[in-house]
């Protein structure tokens, strides 16, 4: 049984950067709090908690806290309120998310109505929408498109949540193009996501089964799972080795493995070690 690990498996640039910022802050700052989860991974969050960083759900009135802004970013009003309350801000927003903010704000200033293609309830999407002065439209799926509303908009700029699947996004853009005269599309899917998705479009064809490692809360992991599952029904999504079932590997000669952008290396290694153990045991029997 061969194990093929995707080159892009695990932490992306933005997550690594955010964790470095957090570690450095923990050395220097007292009264440190993080607004929400730094990234969507339970193990990473546990480590952050061990550093003595408190997670808060919303900004409270007790001043003089240092607040870390997570990799997904936050709406502008969060920054304004934090300053008003006297908090210091350490901004760990991924630069690629910041770039989406910049484009959306710039295009709004130029008179364009902003459409965000992404998951309506995702923190990153809320953060993008929350940069704008006017209300933006979020489109998650083709079936969400309200043609009557769309027809009335003359100038549209489209940005995309960084972890969306390109094929799905392009299909939505195609529909929008039919109804909107002036449409500017910015493909803001980040490079680490593009590389991960490119690999996962190949791996399911070359392996008997696929294991995707990452938290069930992680949007980019979900996307990897969905792409792989469409190409190979024997695709399994696990958060840790404990969720792996031996029965998945019956008659399997090669296993492809990849992991979401917020999955730590140590979880990937544990999964590989566990599969090797299963493999060795089945050889002996
Ligand atoms: S997935 Fe992309 S946008 Fe999100 S943190 Fe990683 S590099 Fe940044």
Question: Can you give a write-up of this model?
Answer:
By secondary structure, this protein is of the alpha/beta class. The chain has 10 helices and 12 strands. It has helices at residues 13-28, 42-50, 76-84, 95-109, 123-129, 147-151, 166-179, 191-206, 219-231, 265-284; strands at residues 2-5, 32-35, 54-56, 66-69, 88-91, 113-117, 137-139, 155-160, 182-185, 209-213, 235-238, 254-259. The strands form 3 sheets. Strands 1-12-10-11 form a 4-stranded parallel sheet, with helices on both faces. A 4-stranded parallel sheet has the order 3-2-4-5, with helices on both faces. A 4-stranded parallel sheet has the order 7-6-8-9, sandwiched between helices. α4 runs parallel beside α5 and α8 packs parallel to α9. The radius of gyration is 21 Å and the shape is flat. The structure holds iron/sulfur cluster (SF4). Residues 12-15, 71, 94, 96-97, 162-163, 190, 192-193, 220, 261 line the site of iron/sulfur cluster. Iron/sulfur cluster binds at residues 12-15, 71, 94, 96-97, 162-163, 190, 192-193, 220, 261.
């Amino acid at each position: 049984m061969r194990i093929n690990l995707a080159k892009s498996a695990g932490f992306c640039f933005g997550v690594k950067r955010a964790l470095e910022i957090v570690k450095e802050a923990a050395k220097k700052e007292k009264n440190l709090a993080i607004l929400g989860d730094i990234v969507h991974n339970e193990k990473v969050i546990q480590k952050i908690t061990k550093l003595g960083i408190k997670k808060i759900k919303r900004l409270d009135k007790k001043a003089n806290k240092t607040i870390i802004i997570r990799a997904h970013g936050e709406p502008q009003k969060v920054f304004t309120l934090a300053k008003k309350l006297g908090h210091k801000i350490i901004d760990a927003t991924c630069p690629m998310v910041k770039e989406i903010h910049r484009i959306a704000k710039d295009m709004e200033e130029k008179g364009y109505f902003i459409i965000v293609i992404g998951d309506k309830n995702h923190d990153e999407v809320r953060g993008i929408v929350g940069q704008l002065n006017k209300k933006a439209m979020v489109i998650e799926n083709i079936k969400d498109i309200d043609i009557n509303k769309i027809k009335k908009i003359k100038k549209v700029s489209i940005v995309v949540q960084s972890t969306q699947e390109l094929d799905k996004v392009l299909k939505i853009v195609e529909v929008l193009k039919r109804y909107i005269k002036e449409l500017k599309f910015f493909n803001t899917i980040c490079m680490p996501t593009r590389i991960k998705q490119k690999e996962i479009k190949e791996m399911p064809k070359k392996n008997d089964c696929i294991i995707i490692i990452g938290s069930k809360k992680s949007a980019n992991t979900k996307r990897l799972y969905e792409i792989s599952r469409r190409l190979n029904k024997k695709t399994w999504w696990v958060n840790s080795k404990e969720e792996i079932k031996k029965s998945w590997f019956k008659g399997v000669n090669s296993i492809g493995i990849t992991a979401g952008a917020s999955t730590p290396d140590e979880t990937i290694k544990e999964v590989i070690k566990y599969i090797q153990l299963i493999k060795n045991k089945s050889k002996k029997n």
